[in-house]
Design a protein that fits this description.
The complex is a heterodimer of chains A (361) and B (266). Chain A has 14 helices and four strands. Chain A has a domain of 227 residues. Chain A is mainly alpha-helical and 361 residues long. In chain A, a hairpin with a 2-residue loop joins strand 2 and strand 3. Chain A is globular, with a radius of gyration of 21 Å. Chain A has a two-stranded antiparallel ribbon with strand order 1-4. In chain A, strands 2-3 form a two-stranded antiparallel sheet. Classes of the chains: A mainly alpha (361), B alpha/beta (266).
């Protein structure tokens, strides 16, 4: 009843082409952002450290892959490696120039993965679909080999691992062993909101239309004057930038330290599943996908024992673990059958129905 | 809509000349020694039975294929081997035999996408959707709305084109080509699969584009009534060769054309 289009007239093109034309949507977004910030002060450290920070990091990586696979239609299996480039670049930058604020290096590290991503995107002019996916797989393996074999990347650290040094922002530790989950969560949240806003601007403007044009009908796009190679490489670069920043956040603001194997092929698939389930070509879908794939198993791990205990069934942790996998797997298949276009489409349909509620149309 | 801002050519000058063009794919000869010209501000029809090489001819003109032999001159300059987007930037737009719209985008976004080459604001401003990027977005939106008014598709402005009926999709595709403000507009069977009323609408749009903005149009069409009514000159292809060229009346009376369409007694 509150969610209505009625009475909101657009009197100029600027208002009509706004990203959130409905007042209720803008309000809702404001409330969600406020709630996310409020969570830093009311949530306990388990919620922030084990649920919210990784959720935001994976959402950011999903946005990155969504720009490439969802908007531009180029399938990539190199996400994990591109995240790794961001993490290693961030490590090198902040240990080489410890005087510069680490926030700057987190944003700068994305440019390195953008460059590497664009380089591995070059074959995309000639190869498409599954074949391109295999070509990006080469990036995955080659970069992972570099992470293992080039000790310079970890400053000749004998353990071969990346570790988060102590770094501060306005005197408060935001990285390293002394940083609280609360401050790290606030930093990650702010970065993710900022980058999501920029991505949303991009995909709603000329560049987004060019990406979608290439995805929907690349020949027609080219015959309209859109340069395929530049457009695809831009998608690779922007996508890898997002993945790179997500990789840096993952290692230094979530794990606090990691080895090369967090950037393996499984990570690439993990992000790809999030994008497919959340909805290809949708930014909000990236968040939904990350929530379903990452948060749902955690929730199940807590809820399942509580649900089973009233029946006098007490099961071991290992059984819960297996049940979790089975339920999440079944849900993924269920959602893909009900709505192949992902959770974002379900969300869209829900909003559409709410607009005309209680009438069917 | 304002008139296209291209170098001045007056009506009747040769805009595009096709000279002795042949196109072969291995042993298959799609076009053999075809020559004709398209003059500024005329409607030029290319007709012929199925498989005559009409679409191949259009594909050569907009740079999708490069002729095996012969040359194509556009605005007095011989065309080098180029990628299609270069031809598009040079002022050649086209529509497709099977609608080739961006299915997930709305009508508005499809036509806006047609203006991509006219948009100049850089990546930085696009990131913030502010300043020059937003100003440009609104400026082009205004132009696109004029096209939408002209083609009478206001009611489907925000509908994803994948959901539109075929006739409307064809109309949106014409709108997308017009958004490029082309000097030469290639229409590949703009009326295929349409009913009489839709054909009349489409004919009206084609004539209006030609008369109001002086856009040169080359069209492929199978409906002879439409071809004879709309076009100033007609070129007839059969098995990749040109068999006739002239005004609709001349072509209609040509014995070889009649034979090509009706068959010859052996």
């Amino acid at each position: 009843m509150l969610y209505r289009e009625a009475g909101q007239f657009k009197t100029n093109y600027a208002a009509d082409s706004a990203i959130f034309p409905l007042r209720q949507d803008r309000l809702g977004l404001g409330v969600i952002i406020l709630a996310a910030y409020a969570l830093a002060f009311i949530g306990n450290s388990f919620l922030l450290q084990a649920v919210m920070i990784p959720f935001l990091v994976f959402s950011l990586a999903s946005i990155g892959l969504n720009i490439l696979t969802g908007y531009t239609g180029l399938l990539s299996l190199g996400t994990g490696a591109f995240m790794g480039v961001g993490a290693y670049a961030c490590y090198k930058l902040m240990t080489a120039f410890p005087g510069v604020n680490v926030i700057i290096w987190i944003f700068a590290s994305g440019f390195f993965s953008a460059a590497i991503g664009a380089l591995f995107g070059l074959p995309s002019l000639r190869i498409k679909g599954f074949y391109l996916a295999v070509a990006t797989l080469a990036a995955q393996f080659f970069l992972q080999w570099c992470f293992i074999r080039i000790p310079w990347l970890v400053n000749y650290n004998v353990s071969g691992a990346l570790d988060a040094p102590l770094r501060t922002l306005f005197g408060t530790p935001i990285m390293g062993p002394n940083a609280t989950p609360q401050t790290r969560y606030l930093v990650v949240l702010t970065i993710v909101i900022l980058l999501t806003w920029l991505a949303s601007n991009l995909v709603h403007g000329r560049i987004g239309r060019m990406w979608i044009a290439i995805r929907d009908m690349d020949l027609a796009a080219e015959l309209m004057g859109i340069r395929p190679l530049q457009t695809k490489l831009l998608a690779f670069a922007v996508s890898s930038y997002y993945c790179g920043v997500a990789g840096a956040l993952l290692v230094f603001l979530w794990y606090g330290g990691a080895e090369y194997d967090v950037f393996n092929i499984n990570q690439s698939f993990f992000i790809l599943f999030m994008v497919i389930i959340g909805g290809l070509g949708s930014l909000i879908g990236s968040f939904f996908g990350a929530a379903l794939i990452f948060i749902l198993p955690i929730v199940l791990g807590i809820v399942l024992p509580a649900m089973l205990s009233p029946f006098g069934i007490s099961v071991g942790a290992d059984v819960i673990e297996h049940l979790r996998f089975m339920i999440v797997g079944a849900l993924i298949i269920f959602f893909l059958i009900v709505e192949p276009h992902g959770l974002a489409r379900l969300w869209q349909i829900g909003k559409q129905k709410l607009l005309v509620w209680p009438f069917p149309y | 809509m304002r008139a296209p801002d291209h170098p001045v050519m007056s009506k009747g000058d040769v805009l595009l000349a096709v000279e002795n063009v042949s196109l072969r794919f291995g042993g298959v000869k799609a076009l053999t020694d075809v020559s004709f010209d398209i003059r500024k501000s005329e409607i030029r029809a290319i007709i012929g039975p199925n498989g005559a090489g009409k679409t191949s001819m259009l594909n050569c003109i907009n740079g999708f294929y490069y002729p095996t032999e012969g040359r194509i001159t556009f605005k007095g300059v011989k065309r080098p081997k180029m990628r299609p987007y270069v031809a598009a930037r040079g002022g050649i737009a086209r529509t497709f035999q099977n609608v080739a719209l961006f299915k997930s985008m709305s009508t508005l976004d499809n036509i806006m996408a047609g203006r991509s080459i006219k948009m100049r604001s850089n990546f930085f401003w696009q990131l913030f959707r502010h300043g020059p990027a937003m100003k440009e977005e609104i400026e082009h939106r205004r132009f696109v709305e004029e096209i939408i008014d002209f083609l009478e598709i206001q009611h489907i402005r925000k509908t994803p084109v994948g959901r539109l009926p075929y006739g409307l999709q064809k109309r949106v595709e014409l709108g997308r080509a017009l958004a490029m403000e082309p000097e030469l507009l290639l229409l590949d069977e703009p009326m295929a699969g349409m009913n009489l009323e839709e054909k009349e609408d489409m004919s009206r749009f084609i004539l209006e584009v030609n008369q109001q903005y002086g856009t040169t149009i080359a069209l492929i069409e199978h409906d002879m009534g439409v071809v004879m009514d709309l076009s100033d000159r007609v070129v007839v292809l059969e098995y990749g060769r040109k068999i006739a060229d002239g005004t609709p009346a001349e072509v209609k009376g040509d014995q070889r054309v009649i034979d090509a369409y009706l068959g010859v007694a052996h």
